[in-house]
Amino acid sequence: MNLVITDSGLGGLSVCAQLMHLLKESAGSGNSANPADGLKISYINAVPANERGYNSMSGKAEQIAVFEKILRNTKKLIKPNYIFVACGTLSVLLKDMPFKRDHKHLIEGILPIGFKLLLESLHQNKRATALIFGTPTTINANTFQDELFQHGIEQSRIITQACPELATQISNDPEGSFVTARIRHWVQQALSQLTAGNSGPLLVFLGCTHYAYREKLFRKSFMQEGYSQISILNPNLVAADSLRKIVQQDQGADKNQSPDISLEFLSPYAIPEDEIITLSQLLKPVSVETAAAFQNARISPELLAE
Description:
It is a single chain. The chain is of the alpha/beta class. The protein contains 13 helices and 10 strands. Residues 32-36 and 255-259 have low confidence and may be disordered.
């Protein structure tokens, strides 16, 4: 099976690392002799250039054009059986993209997984308020808000907080001191939106795959503000488990695959050293293989071929 995981940057590597961890765990438990026979995972950094991220583009039309080009070139280069968009920003775009229309069952995004996690958590606790943290693109698209409203969740139970540049900052701060201060700031901003007298439980939803790298800092910031009883909803973990099931279903369908697993990281440009140092530190405790693939990146300008 050829599996592609892609993101508008490097946050989706967190999903990739969790998937590798789960696959190794399955093999170690004896649940499956070869839970990922013949699996090739290709992680595609879908950012066109280091200084040209999606949140800095002129608008939705440019974002769609760039991602469309990268997806079509990915299909030519890798011939994937499945593409998973581990990115809230890019998942928002999928419904308006020709590639999704032409390959309906080939590609899915993380948004439906995140939405299901959020909705189920709100239904399970009728007194809870959801604090949704995300990039400006994800928050301004009202994706989660509109879906939750349509499913009967009151507006008063949803607080959204855009965190401009936080994903980039997480990738470039190996010590974590600057990011600690920024997360504390955005947590304070979100909490300031709580209505007076709101004493119900808080569901903290990490709506950008980058934020999962610093989940502990989010929890620490809430504790510093006096909120120790929070539930952090991390869709990266649910997405990784969903991918594990897809991989194992495919393995069950084809008994002639070779018992190995390969992992590669492709990017249109060379990743800056600060990001390599920072994210390698964050990835290694979860999956050494993912960190190694990231450190041995394959530079692929052909992802941007016209």
